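Morning. Coffee machine broken again, so started the prediction first thing and wrote up yesterday's gels while waiting. Chain of 472 residues, entered below exactly as on the submission form.
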Amino acid sequence: MQRRSKIVDNLDWTTIFIYILLVLMGWMNIYAAVYSEEHNSILDFSQRYGKQMVWIAFAFAIAITIMLSSSRLYVVFAYFIFGLVLALLLSTLVFGKVVNASKSWIQIGSFGLQPAEFAKFATALALAKLMGPYGFKLNTFTSYVKVGLIIALPAGIILLQNDTGSALVFGSFIFILYREGLPGWILVFLFFLVSLFILTLIFSSISIMVFLYVLTLFVFILQTRKYKDALRFTVALVGIGLLMYLVSELFDISIPRSYFFIFPVAAGVLIAGIYGFVSRFRPAYLWAAFLGVSVMYSLSADYVFQNVLDVHHQKRINDLLGIESDPLGWGYNVNQSKIAIGSGGIVGKGFLGGTQTKYNFVPEQSTDFIFCTVGEEWGFLGSTVVLGLFLYLLLRLIRIAERQREGFARIYGYGVVSILFFHIVVNVGMTVGIFPVIGIPLPFFSYGGSSLWAFTILLFILLKFDSDRFGH
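Came back before lunch.
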């Protein structure tokens, strides 16, 4: 009795209240999304809202079980849990059921289990186990390889299942690495690569190469103040390009126009790299390497987009960037979602009053697009309240993570924040058309047992660590 009383006293009840509130609000929106006159009973278990009640009851039971267990279990068995989930992911490739072109479900009777959802908290545990011990430093090649493998293994298997959205979630663990000592310039460089990928899809390869060269030269001048050297180098590269053009005209050689930019830049990178290495002028070969990597990346980005990504992913990205538009085809989901949210106005149409929702204009309205039900029926004010609750939850979880006494719990806490942040931002972003549709649920809101249980486990393991910190 004394132990149970201690657990109750040490719990972060504010976070638990927010969790329960979000879950119940999610259930209300699922009910509103699939409501019909023929099925209006909240206890109709043939409907999604009825099934969600069962998933919620099990989620609460899971939460209580976690709080009654020992937090040391998750430390000791972190790698075992990670290995077990990896085995489940691999078994899905063999025995899995295909849903929406993704072979990511294991059918158990009438219930479908999605191991990818559970891989998120398992990966957070494994990272905490690796990086938690005192003395671990994220500053060696070996440490980066170990961390990279833990993140890449589940993400790679999920990609093989053709579930790109769930695989992308694992990229959010970069925030854990940043908190634990990853140099800030790496984070900036990764953001630059994402931006460059988008720019490559919008502008021509020649424009991108000119932009990259000017950017590199500008930063080099800011760092070294060597204006004359930069000018001479630029004149030399322009001379190489003009020489190529004259030779092609003189000997009637057909050369693609982009080559007049690629070859001079390649020559410049090589010359600058050799010069910097020989003269031990570090900025020269560092920025030469940056330019070389950036140009190769930009040239390969278009190839990857055209030949690696599925057609529906290409169409969704093109629609997002305004390159193509098909509101009745691949852009239908987002277009209808924006109409639904916009039609809600300031205060919304009221509970069960959403016409876009009622007449099934929005596909996946109880799962991936649940937020458009919030926008239509609760309006701008209701949407702001929901987003405010999510923001407060994230800020509170950061506070919880920071007050942990052990590295394991702190790192795991930031894993929880990273996963929830990615899901919330991307899910809401894709319903309003600022992110491509990648099919990931809104935490605690979207219909589904696997996602609700996985998010519950993710959150309550952290709350268990937090309650046990008083005893350590």
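The chain has two domains: 2-181+314-471, 203-309. Going to sketch it on the whiteboard this afternoon.
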